[in-house]
Each structure stands twice: as structure tokens, then as C-alpha cells.
Amino acid sequence: MHPTLQALRPVRRLRADRRGSVAVEFALLVWPVILLVMGGIQLAIYQYTQLTLSNALFDTASDPEPAVLLGNQAGYKSIVCARIRIMPAATCEEKLLVEMTPLAAVPTGTLSIQGAAFSPGLPMNLLVLRAAIPAVKIVPLWPPTWAKASVVFRRS
């Protein structure tokens, strides 16, 4: 047999051997699947945070808590964070931004939530209650997402 043909024999056997092809295909496809699943979980966490924040603001505005009526921002943060169960209360209170201002004082343009003003206004005033909190991040490359909510209510 010719020496070149003898050198090609292992290559032919390797091409015919399919035992490791499943492992290679799995290794190539597992990472995109894991990233898709993790992205779906991250999106679900964001949506849950958004929904619970919105519900907390609506519930506390429909039947105003004493912390809202007195203008106690720290007390109101603890009330809202008690409803957001996806993150520890201490972390939630630290990162939660809450603002309340009379509707007449709110500018008409877009304004980011800074968490500075928490004015209870006067009785029968229309108040704007806004809040924002960063969603829990489990995917390292996912950009930070903020759940935001606002509600307008009349102080009794």
C-alpha cells in the first residue's frame, strides 16, 4: 500500500466516527439556550417588580397611609418595600426612589424620578406619587432596568 494512503486511513476513520458529534452539538447549542432561559427569567423578574410597584402605589393612594398624609418618605418606603417581596427590605428601602408633589407643581415635560421631593400638600389637593426601583439582576450582561410607576390621587 502506498504511504500516502496509509496516512489517510486514520482521517477516514475519524470522519466515519460519529460517537462524539452529539456532545459537540450539545456544547455548541447549550449556551444560547441558557442565555435565552436566563433572559426570560430576567424579563419575568422585571415585569413582576413593575407590577408589584404599580399595585403598591395604587393601593396606598386609594386609601392613603398615614405616612403619605404626614409626608414621611422613609415610612412610606418601608410600606412599599413590604409589598415588593422579590428583594430584601433593607435593599429595597435603600434603592427605592419615591416622590410626591402637588399636581400643579409637576412640570409638563419628562422628568426623571430623583426621590428628593415628598410633599404631602394640603387637603383636597391633587397629588402625584411616583416611584422607581431597579429590578433584581441575575444576568450579568443585562443592562440595569428600572421599574417605574406613578399615580395621581386627591388627598382627603
Task: Write up this protein.
Helix content is 51%, strand content 15%. The chain has five helices and three strands. The protein has a three-stranded antiparallel β-sheet with strand order 1-2-3. The termini are far apart.
Task: Give a brief description.
This protein has about 160 residues and is an alpha+beta fold. The chain has helices at about 5-15, 20-60, 65-70, 75-85, 90-95, and strands at about 95-100, 125-135, 145-155.
Keywords:
single chain; 156 residues; alpha+beta; 3-stranded antiparallel β-sheet; 5 helices; 3 strands
Q: What is the approximate shape?
A: rod-shaped
Largest sheet, described in full? 3 strands, antiparallel
> What number is the mean pLDDT?
85
Provide the succession of SSEs. HHHHHEEE
* Portion of residues within helices: 40-55%
| Coarse structural class | alpha+beta
Distance between the termini: 101 Å
- The total beta strand count reads 3
Task: Give me the side-by-side strand order of the main sheet.
Answer: 1-2-3
Number of helices: 5
The radius of gyration is 28 Å
- In terms of DSSP E residues, the strand content is 15-25%
- Residue ranges: pLDDT <50 for 5 or more in a row? none
